[in-house]
Design goal:
By secondary structure, this protein is an alpha/beta fold. It has twelve helices and nine strands. The chain binds beta-D-ribofuranose and calcium ion (CA).
């Protein structure tokens, strides 16, 4: 466990968030998951929080602490939600009420405390709107010294958005937070739609899981099946896959700036990569552009198998 990367996942589960969490839990020798912090996004905060804990219960990993964060974006009283995950956020799959409890500390304070207590700092993986992360950076100005790297899902640098013609969901919901994070000076790996639109599974993947006689596989297969029909992309798992096997991805150094405001352009990620467009600016992230989708599917399969080998999903 000594080489495992100390990691916090900040998320809004969300089916693809759930798959990302399971992928991390299937690779605990590589990813030391110190906490899951929740934010409003795909569904309201009360649901993202319950869903994160339902996923931990499903994986039999009730030792990971879960913290509630912000219930709405910085500048708007209510954030936009996503219909891709169903009204409950997990594709309507029948999962029991969570046994894992919520910790009393606010996510912003938990991120700060855990990062400071970790020698060498943490890797922070935001895979929902960036509200918690941005406010943690504002509240604790020297927190950035305790964050090794931010590996995030957000943006659409070289193509259209998914929630508006210009913007990707996570950045559109809280563009101000996205801009604070992108300007933080912390090393950032940015997984936007440019790469996550390539992260497609074979339809047989979820069908095979759903047909299994293992309850864990069945549940994951049903979740993926419900999600695939609305959004076929494994956005958030790309972030975790990169921590496990960066050789699956290619990236380019870029300066990414976020468009603010309230209209369809809010949260648009404007990327500059060439010397001509960068001008005096310096790159503020590595913008990931390509994934080996077959390799990603193999890694996901192996991660789920590793969870099952650890005893998850077998009848008591
Ligand atoms: C992002 O939006 C959410 O719906 C997904 O969970 C992912 O984080 C993709 O745009
Ligand atoms: Ca998400």
């Amino acid at each position: 466990m000594t080489d495992a990367v100390p990691t916090i996942i900040d998320c809004d589960p969300g089916v693809d968030d759930a798959i990302a969490i399971l992928m991390a839990l299937g690779n605990r020798s590589m990813i030391d998951l110190r906490a899951i912090t929740c934010v409003a996004g795909n569904v309201p905060l009360s649901r993202t929080s319950a869903n994160a804990r339902r996923v931990l219960d499903l994986a039999g990993c009730t030792d990971v602490p879960v913290f509630d964060g912000c219930a709405h974006p910085i500048m708007t009283p209510e954030g936009r939600t996503s219909s891709a995950h169903g009204s409950d956020g997990l594709g309507g799959v029948d999962l029991p009420e969570p046994v894992t409890t919520i910790q009393p500390e606010h996510a912003i304070d938990a991120i700060n405390r855990i990062a400071r207590d970790t020698p060498g700092g943490i890797v922070l993986c935001p895979i929902g709107p960036m509200t918690n992360v941005a406010l943690a950076l504002l509240r604790y100005p020297d927190l950035k010294e305790h964050i090794r790297q931010i590996v995030l899902m957000g943006g659409a640098c070289f193509g259209p958005g998914n929630i508006t013609p210009f913007a990707e969901f996570n950045f559109h919901v809280d563009p101000h937070a996205a801009q604070i994070v992108m300007n933080s000076g912390i090393p950032i790996m940015l997984f936007g739609l440019d790469v996550t639109r390539q992260a497609l599974l074979n339809r047989s993947f979820s069908l095979d899981l759903a047909a299994s006689d293992n309850l864990f596989y069945q549940t994951v297969g049903q979740m993926l099946g419900a999600y695939e029909s609305r959004d076929p992309c494994l956005h958030d798992p790309c972030v975790i896959a990169w921590l496990i096997d960066p050789s699956l991805f290619q990236s380019v150094a870029a300066h990414v700036e976020i468009t603010l405001g309230k209209d369809d352009a809010a949260g648009q990620s404007v990327a500059r990569t060439s010397a001509k467009h960068l001008g005096e600016r310096h790159p503020n992230c590595e913008c990931v552009t390509h994934v080996d989708a077959v390799g990603l599917e193999t890694l996901l399969k192996r991660s789920l198998e590793q969870l099952v080998q650890s005893g998850v999903g077998r009848p008591d």
